[in-house]
Amino acid sequence: MNKIVVHAGDIFCIPLFMPKDDWKLKAKLSDNDLDKDFAFGRVIETSSSVLVEIFKKIGSAQTSISEIENSGVLFAPLQIFWDGIIKKRWRIIGKTDCYDKYKHSNDESLKMIFGVDGDFRLRNFASCQGKKAIWLSTTSALRATTYTRLGLKFWAETNLIAALSNC
Fold first, then answer.
1. Sorted alphabetically, which InterPro entries does this protein's record hold (predicted)?
2. Distance of CA 134 to CAs 49, 70, 159, Å?
3. Between vectors from CA 106 to CA 125 and to CA 76, what angle results, nearest 5°?
4. What is the tens place of the pLDDT at every residue in 55-84?
């Protein structure tokens, strides 16, 4: 099995037409699917998981990178496991040229809420490379609408359509 290498700036597509209850990711993306509807994201940074931002653009997998980038960010950041790519459900379709997370993704202003009920934290990526976190009450976390709360690995697919319909 070939190891899939992820790089900051990689643009990937998320199929909006596949079954959302396929928890084992058995449904694979084929070349015949590339004209269907996709959402798009970009890798901001990688570690044991991948920090991504999701764009507002919906289109086929052949949508130009510049059109995707110019659509604006729907929500950012979202930390995910790379299962969708590894199991061939999502596909890397391009790359932001000369990607710089500070310039292209406004990295210094990125914040993310993570945790479970009663134990929420706000991670500020600008403070010591995100090593400091602020503890939040459940009420504060739920009110922080400009930040993305982490969920299950299918959060992106199952909630993306609802988020896009509110734009």
1. Imm26
2. 21, 32, 26
3. 70
4. 999 999 999 999 999 999 887 677 787 788
